[in-house]
Write a structure and sequence with these properties.
- The chain is mainly α.
- The chain has a single domain, classed as 2-Layer Sandwich (Muramoyl-pentapeptide Carboxypeptidase, domain 2).
- It is about 40% helix and about 5% strand.
- The chain is built from 13 helices and five strands.
- A three-stranded antiparallel beta sheet has the order 3-4-5. Strands 1-2 form a two-stranded antiparallel sheet.
- α6 crosses α9 and α6 packs across α11.
- The radius of gyration is 19 Å and the shape is globular.
């Protein structure tokens, strides 16, 4: 169902402390992952198992779809809301990767992950696509992307994500878009960057008014960074693009690329990226002080789970 038609139915430092002492995970040669990743409350063991699973045989799509009963258009809104209340589960209309795409997903993810290991987590947050390709060609530890991998990454960026059930706006149209060093500032002791100006000022004000118990957990995300996150979530979802997109915006659709950012409670770990954050004193203060305009509220019509940690700037 098209977005318009669907909507018409309704008339390292502090960051390490915030993530419970864990930084961004790395994928080793034996498919093991060493830590957690922002926006994904997933353990290292769970992510390692997901990578291993994606290297196996794809599920039978026909049998998968036949396990669900089709619904007519009049019930789609109710079905949609039920789906979003159970965003971590598969649903009949979900879009799955093909058998030939599954190994490309895994290999592309591994190669991008090796780039992250090479440049470091902080620099990776703002790394451009062309720079990623240069690093891969010049470093044997990464290896150049194959033509099939590049085609897969490009198709993912330019895909019609409404077919996944994601109705959010595409905010970056160029795969090779970059964030100029003149436009960003690195936030001390977080490993993350913010855009200068409004984003930076809002974060400073939050820290001033709420205190040291709140910290930046995810700032600027380049196309490369968002692609890495989305690939990781798709692997965890066993190749289910729709399931992945309910938790992470597809590449080009994340407002982290133009100004939004995430905050969390120091010491709260991966729970900062779950609904549990909405039960913290820090969240209550954000609401009471008027800082929080939630990008993805409960029962939103964008195909994205509720994100109480996401600060809407743009």
């Amino acid at each position: 169902m098209q977005r318009r038609k669907f909507l018409g139915l309704l008339s390292i430092g502090s960051a390490a402390a915030a993530l419970g002492g864990a930084g961004a995970w790395r994928l080793s040669a034996n498919n093991r992952v060493s830590a957690v990743i922002e926006d994904m409350p997933t353990s290292a063991t769970e992510m390692s198992a997901a990578v291993q699973r994606m290297s196996g045989v794809a599920p039978d799509k026909l049998k998968y779809l036949q396990s669900f009963q089709a619904v007519d258009e009049e019930t789609q809104l109710t079905r949609y809301l039920e789906k979003m209340n159970n965003f971590e589960y598969s649903h009949g209309e979900d879009v799955l990767l093909s058998e030939t795409q599954r190994p490309l997903l895994v290999e592309s993810f591994k190669r991008i992950d090796r780039v992250q290991s090479l440049v470091g987590h902080g620099n990776f947050n703002v790394l451009g696509f062309d720079d990623m390709l240069r690093y891969s060609r010049r470093n044997e530890s990464v290896g150049a992307f194959t033509s099939q991998e590049l085609e897969f990454l490009e198709s993912l960026f330019f895909d019609d994500v409404e077919r996944y059930g994601f109705y959010g706006e595409k905010v970056i149209d160029s795969l090779t878009a970059v964030v100029s060093s003149r436009d960003r500032i690195k936030v001390s002791r977080t490993g993350h960057f913010l855009f200068k100006g409004q984003s930076e000022e809002i974060y400073k004000k939050i820290r001033q008014d709420v205190g040291d118990s709140i910290v930046l957990t995810s700032g600027i995300r380049s196309i490369v960074k968002q692609t890495h996150l989305f690939l990781a979530k798709t692997i965890q979802s066993n190749g289910n693009l729709s399931l992945a997109s309910r938790s992470l915006a597809p590449p080009g659709h994340s407002f982290h690329g133009i100004g939004d950012f995430d905050v969390g409670k120091v010491g709260f770990g991966a729970k900062n990226f779950t609904v549990d954050f909405s039960g913290t004193e820090e969240f209550r203060q954000l609401v009471d002080l008027g800082y929080l305009t939630i990008r993805y509220p409960e029962e939103n019509l964008l195909g994205v789970r509720y994100e109480p940690w996401h600060i809407k700037v743009v």
